[in-house]
Design goal:
The structure is a homotetramer of 201-residue chains. The first copy, chain A, has 201 residues and is mainly alpha-helical. Chain A has a single domain, classed as Orthogonal Bundle (Tetracycline Repressor, domain 2). In chain A, 78% of the residues lie in helices and 0% in strands. In chain A, helix 4 packs across helix 5 and helix 8 runs antiparallel to helix 9. The longest helix of chain A is centred in the last third of the chain and has 28 residues. The first copy, chain A, is elongated, with a radius of gyration of 18 Å. The termini of chain A are far apart. At the A-B interface, helix 6, helix 7, helix 8 and helix 9 of A face helix 6, helix 7, helix 8 and helix 9 of B. The structure holds a DNA duplex (21 and 21 nucleotides).
DNA sequence: TATGAATGAGGATTCATTCAT
DNA sequence: CATGAATGAATCCTCATTCAT
């Protein structure tokens, strides 16, 4: 693994970390496994990230970017209709989870909630990185909400930001449920609820 | 710590474990800390629970009972009105979390989601114990939902069980949010959403 | 290694540590070697001493006791004459070093100076333990000095405490020299100088 | 750090190494710190010195030269009187140590004794380099001793070489003491003793 | 020659668990 | 049944050193 730029190596480490932390939790993965899975020496990992915790923070940051691109941006590019965009987001998430489930019979839940819940009381930095990621995702929900409301005048008294945080909470909740119930369909059910939130609140 | 029946000792261990796992996650607590906090010798723990994992399972089971009693039963005893009962549940949860927050500046989240999310891919037994706990809580939401619907005929197309699982998901979500955002008020916001779910779906 | 009281085990660890640190320096010995040499599991060492540094501090303290007993007390018991007592001290040290030299062709120097010089800028605790050990030894030199002066009125202007610290420094110096020169006889030469200090200053 | 001759680079490395080894011991400094402090890439160090140990040997050799020049030669140039020369040596050493002590509150001891004592049983090459350095310094003490004796006929029975090695030992001892006691004045006290050795033995 | 990047071996320390009494 | 003491296997991390350009 020597013919790589420093940044490429960092990315390789982070992508491996994202995957393993997602699958087996932060404490469930050790730096040995991480280095082996990344095809890199353990010491190399430490030249890129000075501690496991720092690596986790960077992994959350990179996961934010990847999720933004592959889940939210593609959902938005596929349609301009806010309800459809919302459904697309859930579809994207569902496809990923179902395909893992089909080959491995596991549901991994939300990578952000997973590591956030595990480390929130231990690592402020990880907690903040997760919150920051959620901030990014909320912008998309905000767009959806305001677009929807602009097009459909309702008699709702809810504020936009209440809808937005409900949408975020709903995504987190359905991913937690899918993990605990080992049932990818929980994500689809979450999609229905999300539309309910948008339309009926 | 010698003048105790076997069961009393077990309960002392479990209550300690519930508290510590809640505060610092499963991997964040070791058997040393656990035994010290329980005022018992480490080896004694192993005479009551043959492994840390088994202890975690039993802790989840006991936490289920305690939550049922102190959160749900008291909420139901305080009122017969389904909406009020729902609000009471959230109030009970909120009070607990706010008082911890006031003295320790931390939000601990949902003990079931915490350990479930951390161990779901590692320990089937813990995962199942969490799911079983949720099953108990869902019965209360089921009662609330059917009571509410019996009293208020709506034109909703949602099934009862959809409402019920939305209510459970909503509780989990607001506790996760309160933990990640370090904001007990997220639980109150969850209460508002719960009522929304009940009334508007 | 299980049929031992906790204190016996601690002593076994410390005696092993004294020996190994003396032979190979603090950084030159790792906890693996230490545990193997002590016939104990590495984790057992950590149940007795919470860190390598703390172990080093305790080792210096125990080495102080042993040196006091086997070097200074025996030197004093063998004679009441101050000059002879001084010579006895050096003889005791010399015998130890020469016998090691004869079997292993090495000179280990002064265990206190060795570890003190190695760690003085790193560990205040070790530095203080060494200084405290020297304080114990100085009491013997003080006895010798005042006894000698009581018996031999000289026209010297030196203060007792100047003689005492010169005697301590001389012992340290000759042990350093014997180590660096790989020559146990340097200790005998130190003995001659010590007598010079006592008589001619 | 590219516009430098090979020798200049070597010297920069060695001067950095002398300083760091003096401050933090051989094992207390790693090649990373060394390269950073020298403003050079770590691999560059290895092109100049094939191992850390070889670097240490070269550092001791260079430290010998520097000490000879800045401590002993200047002491000799400042006076022709042997007692004064001896005092000058200690003054030079004292000034260096006191100024470090004033800015950093530490006493670093003797760089030769420090590394010699740390590595004598590990590295014959370092041990020999230290001994060789001492040989250089002893020539100055030899000059002082014979000059003094030529000018002051005494009834002493000591041989010149005994005085010389006592003077060397005394310097080492007072530097060790200053380090362990964190007291630069120990060097001044050593100066008094050195004069005692010269005059009264 | 110089350097950015990588690495195998080893460092201190901690873990869940078990033994002997 | 309870406990003081011990342990094998890991855990995170660091080290001196080397490679490829």
């Amino acid at each position: 693994m020597k013919d790589m730029s420093k940044e490429e190596t960092s990315i390789q480490i982070l992508d491996t970390a994202i995957d393993l932390f997602w699958r087996a939790s932060y404490h469930g993965v050790n730096m040995n496994e991480l280095s082996r899975a990344a095809n890199l020496n353990k010491a190399t990992l430490y030249q890129h990230f000075s501690s496991k915790e720092k690596l986790a923070v960077a992994a959350v940051e990179r996961a934010t970017l990847r999720t933004q691109t592959f889940v939210f941006d593609t959902a938005f590019e596929a349609s301009t209709n806010p309800v459809q965009r919302l459904k697309n987001i859930y579809q994207n998430v569902f496809h990923t989870h179902r395909s893992i489930y089909e080959t491995e019979s596991i549901c991994l839940g939300c990578p952000f909630v997973n590591i956030g819940v595990e480390l929130a009381t231990t690592s402020e930095d990880v907690r903040k990185a997760v919150i920051k990621g959620f901030g990014v995702f909320q912008e998309y929900y905000e767009q959806i909400t305001s677009d929807y409301r602009a097009a459909n005048d309702s008699n709702s008294t809810s504020l936009n930001k209440e809808i937005v945080s409900a949408l975020l909470a709903n995504m987190n909740a359905c991913l937690v449920a899918s993990k605990l119930e080992k049932r990818p369909e929980a994500i689809l059910e979450g999609s229905v609820r999300a539309v309910n939130i948008l339309k009926h609140w």
